[in-house]
Amino acid sequence: xxxxxYHRIMWQGxxxxxxxxxxxxxxxxxxxxxxFNAIFYGWLIATLPxxxxxxxxxxxxxxxxxxxxxxxxxxxxxxxxxxxxxxxFLLPNVQAGSVFVGFLVMLVAFTVGNIWASVTAHKQS
Length: 125
Hints:
single chain, mainly alpha
């Protein structure tokens, strides 16, 4: 399988998972709109590092797949999430539980998206 095809599959999984996770969080916000900001912060903490790692780890500048890019992207993603959590918890009137719910929903969605992309790539190879 070419890296272009793999790159396309990974981004499809990212956008599908991001959309599904966002819909779940919107339904949660409709039930309890008081925690909108905190849930949104959790969404950002999960989504932005994931998008950065996708951009860094799955570049299609060459036809070879470089695992070291993915390993570096994962470590930087953990670091970005840690810094983002610390920054959000310094804000006034932010409930940690709601931030964590937003983060966990998106984390589960991205995990399912990555599993789907891996299974799809395996079937096509």
